[in-house]
Write a structure and sequence with these properties.
Radius of gyration: 20 Å
Structural class: alpha/beta
CATH class of the largest domain: Alpha Beta
Number of helices: 8
CATH topology of the largest domain: Metallo-beta-lactamase, Chain A
Strand content: 25-35%
Distance between the termini: 26 Å
CATH superfamily of the largest domain: Ribonuclease Z/Hydroxyacylglutathione hydrolase-like
Strand order of the largest sheet: 3-4-5-6-7-8-9
Largest sheet: 7 strands, mixed
CATH architecture of the largest domain: 4-Layer Sandwich
Oligomer: single chain
Number of strands: 11
């Protein structure tokens, strides 16, 4: 979606695990302009590690080509027109522009397959483009930052002279609030809104209620706080959304 560190730092782990699982070709990375720079950086940073693993386990197990990345630049020049990134075997992936300035090109993605659809907002402030491309989708996975909670963090840091108060002050201007994400979901007519990229962390049920303050007033149902282990099943030929907890 974009190249903030928290959105790319897991790529080398994906690369290693899939390589160890038998991938013999370069790992394909789709992304905005700049993805080639990221791929080159990972190649360089992990070149020693790759060599160690090949030497230890053998070139038949870790095929050298599998250590590489193949970056594919996805350019979306028009905010109002999506670009097809992938269209194979009935799976269609569409990239569209979202608003995460100063990030120049940040993307959301819509995935369609056999009449079912999932939209991922990526990082963005409230953006009508998300509503446009999520129209009629089954699931909208939307980032959210609770500015009323982050404001308290900012105040606490400022009171103790912690310079990170500025970070807390700055970040709300390029993220959507939980209420704004719900408004986008309603406008798009999606069945289920799943919050992700949740800021701040929510350690208990009370924090979850504070995070969702105001959401129920505009969206009475079809809301889920995302968590590691949430697995959503969308059976083809159906309108069902089946939730599984894999924790």
């Amino acid at each position: 979606t974009h190249f903030h560190s928290d959105h790319i730092s897991g790529i080398p782990d994906i690369a290693l695990n899939s390589w160890a699982s038998g991938r013999r070709e370069a790992l394909v990375l789709y992304g905005p302009p700049g993805v080639e720079t990221v791929a080159k950086g990972f190649d360089l940073a992990y070149s020693l590690d790759d060599g160690y693993r090949i030497a230890h386990h053998g070139a038949d197990f870790f095929v050298a080509e599998g250590a590489d990345y193949l970056p594919i630049v996805v350019d979306v020049p028009d905010r109002h027109a999506g670009v097809t990134v992938f269209d194979e075997g009935g799976v269609k992936v569409t990239a569209f522009r979202v608003s995460h300035e100063p990030v120049d090109q940040a993307y959301g993605y819509r995935i369609d397959y056999k009449g079912r659809s999932v939209v991922f907002s990526g990082d963005t402030k409230k953006d009508e483009n998300v509503a446009t491309f999520a129209r009629g989708a089954d699931v909208l996975i939307h980032e959210a930052l609770a500015d009323h909670m982050v404001g308290l963090l900012e105040q606490g840091l400022d009171d103790t002279g912690d310079r990170r108060a500025k970070v807390m002050h700055d970040i709300p201007d390029y993220h959507a609030t939980p209420v704004q994400a719900a408004e986008i979901a309603n406008e798009a007519g999606v069945k289920l809104l799943v919050y992700t990229h949740i800021v701040p962390r929510l350690p208990n049920a009370l924090a979850e209620r504070v995070f969702l303050r105001g959401v129920s007033a505009i969206r009475s149902g079809g809301v889920e706080l995302g968590y590691d282990g949430l697995y959503l099943e969308l059976p083809a030929g159906s309108e069902k959304i089946v939730e599984h907890d894999l924790r």
